[in-house]
Amino acid sequence: MEEGTSKSPSNPGGTVAVAGAPGVDGSGAPVVDGSDADCFDPFQWDTREDCEVRQILDRIADKWSLLVIALLDNRTLRFTELRREIDGISQRMLTVTLRQLERDGLVHRTVHPVVPPRVEYGLTSLGCTLHETIQSLVNWTEAHRAEIAAARAAYDARAVG
Fold it and tell me: pTM of the entire structure?
């Protein structure tokens, strides 16, 4: 089997096509137009380093990015406030994370012309839409926490026995 694909009875072609998604026609058949249509195949994300979707998912799914986005919901914070709030993050990692989020258009940086300069970070409108999605994942996790704990316990009991 080719690395990065899944060929099972429920997925014999090794790809997933979703009608209405970019790169997919109304019948669900992939559209090949020379663009990065393969980026829409989730089974290829782990093998295609040049896939923009993979790069974006790697960035926003990073634990530091998620925390920064959550903390900036409906407010602006200074660098030192963010660092104080995020347990375990180094100054360098916070700097890198903020720069990447700013580059992706999720966070905006405002420099106030005072002495010493005051810099604040906040979510852009795009970042706010991502926060809504992250909040949905948090809500799902909280709603299913007990089920997941039970499944883990059952799995661990089978693994030991």
Answer: 0.63
